Fold:
Amino acid sequence: MSTGDLEAALSKIRPHTTSSLPHQKAPANLLTALEATFKEQNAERTPAAYFAGLLTALESTVQKEREGNFALRDGDLLPAELYLLALVGPFVPPPVIRANLNTLLSLTTPLWTPLNSYPPPLRSQLSLYNAVLRALDRSQLEAQPIRQSFVTILQLCVDSRPKVRRRAADLVRDVLSSPPSPLMRHPYSERAGEWSVSALSEVNSLGSSKQKGKKNADDIVSAAIHLLAFLRPVLPYLPSTVLPTITTSLLTLPRLGNPYLSQSAYGVLSDLLSVPDDPDVPRNIDASTADLLQAILNAPPLKTDVTLLPSWVEVVGKTMLVYASTDPDACAVELGRVWKTVFPYLESPDAATRRETAAALARLAECISPALVDSALSNPISDKNALVQIVAQLTKALDTLSYARATSELLVVVSALITALRYRRNGRESPTAAEELLLPLLQKIGDMRVKKEFEYKEAADGVLRTAMAIIGPEVLLDALPLNLEPVDRAAGHEPRAFLLPLLVQTHPSPLRHFIQYFVPLTERMFDLQQKADAEGRAAEAKVWSVLVSQIWNGLPAYCFRTPDLRESLSPQFAQMLSQLLYSQPELRPPVLRALKVVVDSNAKGESTTNTDTEPDALSENEIAQNRVFLRAQSESWFAVLFNLFGSVGRDGQGIVGEVISTWASIANEKEMTKTCRKVVDMFKANLSKMSAPSSSNAHAHPTEEQRGVVAAMQDILVLLVPYLSQSGRVLKNRDNGVQKRAYKLLGKLVQADKVAVDAEDLFTKMDEAADDTLAAAKKDRLTFLKALLPYLPSNALHVIPSLIPEAVLGTKEPSEKARTAAYELIVAMGYKMKEGGVVKRHKLNGMDEDDITEASANLQEYFTMMAGGLAGATSHMISATVTAISRLVFEFKDDVSSEVHTEIFLTFLEYLKSANREIVKSTFGFVKLFIHTLPADLLRPHLKDLVPVLLGWVHDHKNHFKTKVQHIFERLIRRCGFDAVYACAGADEDGGKVLLNIKKRKDRAKRKKAQREDDDESADEKTPAGHAATGDAFEDVLYGSESESDESDDGRPAAPQLTAKKGKKGKDMGTRLRVDDDEPMDLLQGANTRITSARKSVRKPGADASKFKTDEGTGKMLIDTGDSEIEVDEDARLGGAAYRETLTSVDGFTRDQRGHVKFNKDTKKRRRDAEDAGENEDVDMVDAGAGTGTDKNRKLKRKSSVKIGQEFKAKRAGGDVKKGGVDPYAYLPLSQAAKGGRGKGGQKLSVTGRR
Structure:
């Protein structure tokens, strides 16, 4: 652990000096006092210093309290000292602990007894002893106080308090896993093993006692569970001599009748028998596996106990695996008995039990030895051989009704058995044991697979897939024919097309089988496809096409280390593959994969001589002969692949390029050089045709075909780049694609590191081609220059000054990738100069050749070279230089002296006074970086010069200068304090007001943030996120705002960006871009994360039916004709009709094509439309004093029409009551109806009651 981790841990304690909790306040006060002592004595705060100081304080406290009782409550001094010692202990060097061991033991060992009643300080003491015990050597571990303390710790491992128990168990595990050098096992492992045996024996004896009550039984079970939790991580470190006893005790724990305890016991055994993930963890179970197996088999749970059976079966399987690895012959003797014991559990109705039983039987299948296989092959009908009995039992179980529900598990066991029987008795020429013993069983499973009512097709496919990989399709398809042709179907045979997808995995069948069996089959299928197409049976033609594709997808598996490669890959077959590549695009991918696999599988040359584990492996001699054969065919395949590469599109060139690279890896160097020269000559010829103008048109551009040929040639050269000699005049070609590929080609050539590179000469040639570089190739050129830089000798660093102008100007490129490459080149040159070397000044461009002085290469010299750009003739160059130096300051801030930083800062301070805005903008970035990155002590002496200059730009709104300066001042105030910055404003009253405004805005933002955190309702609301980080630390510092508040200039919060209005209901808006508040949208990168197809759910038909009143008898909808006045929201009415009103109303207007306003004419039609729309209706005025606080006062009430007879309507009645119902009619004098709405101010009467 590092000192930084200790400081991080202590920093969490220091703020608690004012805590109201005593157990937090006491350690904080003690730490503060200790660090104050360090400061008075000018002592360094190292872990050893903290340890010594705390040990001294502990000694003083123990001596004072030894005579009476130790004060161990919260807030007392002794628990605080133990807490800090436990925190510091892991960081203390082991020699320091060993030197102070006697003092530490004399102070802490007497505390074990009084600490037992106080868990917090007890846990601290355990953590302290964890660090102490791991730091001691073997001789110190034998000391009596240490051994007694370890015994006490072991007793605490079964303590009733969970935290104490866990801390003690972790201590024992950590100590046993880190023995002192050079021991492989810790000296305390035997003591821990003896204690574990004793504890388990005590639990078992108490559990078997007849005089135990319920409470006592619960205590025993709890103690046993705690003991198992301790044993699980510790068992791998215990000596093997105690494991049989521990295992026997673990197997007796299920008798206590607690399900969780029983599962935990079997879980501990399972972990013990598993192969450890960490190879350094010792495996101590090997010596006692036989006894362990016997103990497990003698203690099986009940067959009806579905809780324990899975765990017990799993333990049996893992035990047999360990037994087979230690003594295969003895394990083979026990295999039959164990198989018969485990197999009947497949009848269990519990799915978990069947699943674990199948897994255990699969592990038992791995225990089959070659001797047992030889015996079964010699007498396959013998009933005494365990393997023969296993095969017979599996075959019978597939037809037995009691195993019907375990069919999928049986098929899993068959797959494991096939894998275990890949053994060949007489080498590769003889059949596998699976073929001789399991072929009838596979035929049975194949017949089950074709039945329509068979439910376990996936499990059967798993068996056939395993058989395909072990036995091979040549044998399997002979036993289970495909039956895909019409002749087979006519004979009544069921087709087995499900076998074709299984051909894609590697298998032992030779390539000859594919040529003799599948090639003629695909030809017949292709004829059937053509016939079906001609007769218009498109579906049938598609079926034949799919079958042909599935067959050819199996070709790569046939090519993987096939033993008959030299005979099968004949010129006739190679010609057929070439024709398929040219004429059958759908079969091109599998053929290309086959060509790649056939080279890769023979080029690696990793032969396996162990025929027991890999009986189908080729010998090293056979692989070498295959390589020679493939190397002889490489030239012919290059011609085919090059032609194919040029004919396919850009999308299909990737896999073709991979195959070309694969064949190039095994080709002869002489033949490869010849091939490369041919390609280069063809490339030069096509490049000349592309560059030379035609006689008819001197300004004609190259055709797309010419561009495609040149591009394909360049891509091929990229693939063959390790053998390429030179690039010629490609770098000066005026085509963007040619230049970009040329620089990529050079970059691959350098990175391949297979050719000698004269970096100095190459840099000189690059300098000559700099003026001809196109903008599109800048990024690739800068990337190549960076890749070439490590090859530059330390005595040729005079090349770097010639690269600086190009790299500096590259930081101003429009392309972000080009700018990034420029920054990387600038930094790489800085690291190159930092490594040291010599700069020969007489070789610099423009320098006196007679000057033979040399300069030492270092960062200061590099900064001097970069500063030359500040004297540039254009503001563009000066601005780029400022940005480049800023990048160097950020990268090498810790490697450059403070004098250099000060000189750079004072120089750039003058550029802040420049009248050129581009230069000032770059300088703002440097100032922001300087404030953010460098120490505040380096900045404070220059505040009096910096603040007045910045205040001069604070009122400039152009190019966001005001905002930039405000952000700089915010950073400045955070680093140096407001008082220091405000004092430098001097007599500038306006500047002082600006600084005060910034401070007020900052304080206001803090108050609002605190208020939002305190407010329960606002705490759940998501505030708008700030600017996202770019992923580049320099870019974040230079362009990130980090403003304390997002307020506008007038102090008000900035309004969030409004989202677009929704369209009409039911209108499908398609895919839209999600609008984020105040965040720019990048449409080139990451835009897919902002595309959403979600939209508001539209109203479904009939969704509002429940809101209407209906008649209970008829179900008809009832319309309420109440006389309540209709309230209309003015904002909704006016806002919804605002646009229509501007076009149609009397007061509206339109604009012509030039944007001039043209008011609408006051015509009679417009006035009539306005009256119909209710624009001139009277509005009831609401009394200001009545009903305040209600929403009705904020709404306008449109005057509704008055129905005839309204005044005769009773308030409580619904009409005239008559027999059988209500009379809906009302009677009134005709004179009243005749009054009508003749006057403009009169009421509008409605005879029909309609509005």
Notes: The mean pLDDT is 77.
